[in-house]
Input
Amino acid sequence: MKFSIKNLDKCRRKLEITIPSDAVIEEKKKAVGVYAKHANIPGFRKGKAPLNVVENKYNKEIINDIKEQLLPMFYQKAIQESEIKVVNIIEYSEINIESDLSAKFDVTIDVYPKFKLPKYTDISVSTKLDLVNDKDIEDQIDNLLNQFSTYEIMNEKKIEAGDMGQLEYEAFIKDKPLREVIPESKGLSSGKDYWVSADEHSFIPDMGHQIIGLSVGDEKEIEIVFPKSFMINELSEKKVNYKIKLQAIKIKIKAELNEELLKKIQVESIDQLKEIFHDQLSQQAKNKELSEKHEQIISYLLKKTKIDVPESSIQQQTREVMYNLARQKMMAGASQDDLSNDQEKLLSEAKEKAIENVKLRFIGLSIADEQNFEATNEEIDQEISQIAIQQRKKADEVKSEMINNHTIESVSDQIKFNKALEFMVEKSKNK
Output
């Protein structure tokens, strides 16, 4: 076998492979022999026709079989001999069988980038571990009491911040009903028996603030300016007039920290509750500090590493990031039309993030290789189990899908990357 390697760009190569004639002839003999055993040719018993007759009758099929066998076999040999680390196969050319029965074909591939790692030990990070104090714990207890609060109808008063108001409302834009101007507005255009908190939190932005001071039966016209980032794009930065009527008022009855509540949340004492909150807040503080270290280390690696990454990897990652961005926006209320209108912006944002992700992956894996970090079978199975829980599938099912889709290596890569990141955290130094 002979092969040559052409550089198409910094990460793309073309392998030009020549298969010797003796290999082609040997494979052809095998193929003819297989067809001869099962061939039904008039004038001959099954499996007894001369080989040359079989070859002539099934020549096209035999040639195709030869090509299917030889291409992957000699591609793998070329990769092994060249010691190229392949990222993605871009395309195969057709195998051409020459008159001397040698054969030639090309394979275009993307390879692992070559780059110099920066110094990744003693990376300077600036973080601060937030210490938990008594006020933090009291705030948690206060939040807990609010969660268990109840509401009581109290119509003989003016509504105050923290109360709940039941509203009847109808919206207009320049005296035209909102539902006619913007059909997508749906429940924002009109409603009845709608409960809203008389503070900054409400489905319709700022409505809660504007009902403070009203009594049951009061009517009022208010102006709402929807924020630029509102989930319904058509309402972005729009001024909408609302005619509202206060139907009822509920006041919050804050829960008390007593034995009944402690029993309900399965805590034995107030001291134990405080200890639980202290531990939770401490862990949150540690997680925050660790996250800040990760961000600073990642920023350092991206800034200090000059690396060109394969275009095919960028394309794959862009699709994944694009999908995740679109899903996030749809969960926030965006429609398919909204996504279509923002497609160019989404694509640009996704590609920028994808390039960073791909660069970081290669950098992290190179550090992992340099430090001999590996992913054990047990670690891979644990990670797959977590993925299975998220996808609401069985772990064996997810693992089988990954093996079939050739994506299980990504799990191993992520584990090695995480080990590399943790190593850099341990070796980092505070400014």
